[in-house]
Amino acid sequence: MLPTLSRTERERFLAGVHVGVLGVTDDRATGAAPLLVPVWYVYEPGGEVIWQTARDSVKARLVRGAGRVSLCVQDERAPYRYVSVEGPVVGERDPADAAARAAAARRYLPAQDAAAYLEATRAQLTDDVTFRMRPERWRTADFSSFAATFG
Q1: Are 40 and 104 in contact (CB under 8 A)?
Q2: Is 34 a residue whose pLDDT tops 80?
Q3: SS3 state of residue 65
Q4: Strands 68-75 and 81-93: what pairing?
Q5: Per the CB 3.0–4.6 Å rule, which of 22, 123, 136, 145 could disulfide with 87?
Q6: What pTM was computed for the model?
């Protein structure tokens, strides 16, 4: 059995800066695999996972239809760790939430670049929507203790 992260560790890890991989059931074809796409997201321990996407995108349509999503984040440096959360979509704001957009830009970009990015992509505030997911199921692995047995 893989070593896992404690509740505090997993929430802190998810709150760290990682590009998430969002997964949602893809109902466009019988037997289709889930749609998996990278996303910027915002999360604070005990809260909801927040991300934005284009209102009319395949991703948005599938999220609305499924009503549930998964998000996986990982540390690609050894010793490897990951957190995967799954839960219901508990909110959609249309048009996109400007404060959530700014928070995501500041999370992933240096301050000067975030300001320039927000200005250059300001039209997305009218073209995008903001989704919120409440984490219900958590899956984690922390290979640091496993890797220590080899050191």
Answers
A1: yes
A2: yes
A3: helix
A4: antiparallel
A5: 136
A6: 0.93
Of residues 35, 108, 96, the one with CA closest to residue 71 = 35
Which helix (H) or strand (E) covers residue 92, if one does?
Answer: strand 81-93
What distance lies between CA 91 and its chain's CA centroid? Answer: 15
Q: For residues 55 and 126, what is the distance between their CA atoms, to the nearest angstrom?
A: 9
Who has greater pLDDT, 92 or 78? 92
The alpha-carbon radius of gyration of the chain (Å, integer) is 17
User: Distance between CA 40 and CA 42 in Å, rounded?
Assistant: 7
What digits encode the pLDDT tens for the residues 109-143?
999 999 999 999 999 999 999 999 999 999 999 98
User: Are 98 and 22 in contact, with CB atoms under 8 Å apart?
Assistant: no
Report helix, strand or coil for 138: strand
